[in-house]
Design goal:
Keywords: Coiled coil. The chain is mainly α. It contains 2 helices and no strands.
């Protein structure tokens, strides 16, 4: 739940930064839907170097923020991948345990089959002995 909230905050911050940057750029370059199109600052003057530098610095700060956010997202993904890898490793271990249990069950079945055949043979022999005893008697 906290991760979803962090993602929402990141998206909101990114949209806000982009909107602010876009508005600043449009004001300084004279582009956009301003009534003052053609007059970058709205008063007929050109943007100063300080204004352009402010836009560049704002852009740089926004990019640094986005890089930091991407780094955080990458670290979260790495943590998720480690969790998945651990679960896969656990599942592989469980599979090996189950395979061992299957082998043990097959051995028990083979032993039970041998015991059954032995008992069937003894019953047959007992029947033969009983039949012979009845015949002799």
């Amino acid at each position: 739940m906290g991760k979803d909230r962090a993602t929402q905050l990141h998206a909101t911050n990114t949209i806000t930064q982009y909107t602010t940057l876009r508005q600043s750029t449009h004001q300084l370059t004279g582009q956009g839907d301003d009534e003052s199109a053609g007059c970058p600052l709205g008063d007929g003057s050109e943007p100063s170097q300080a204004d352009l530098l402010a836009v560049i610095q704002g852009t740089r700060m926004a990019l640094e923020f986005n890089i930091e956010t991407v780094s955080i997202d990458v670290n979260l993904l790495r943590a998720d991948l480690r969790k998945v890898a651990n679960k896969v490793e656990t599942a592989e271990g469980n599979i090996l345990v189950l395979q061992g249990e299957v082998v043990a069950l097959k051995r028990q079945m083979a032993q039970m089959t041998t015991v059954r055949h032995d008992l069937e043979w003894r019953v047959k022999m007992q029947k033969d002995v009983t039949a012979e005893a009845i015949f002799v008697y």
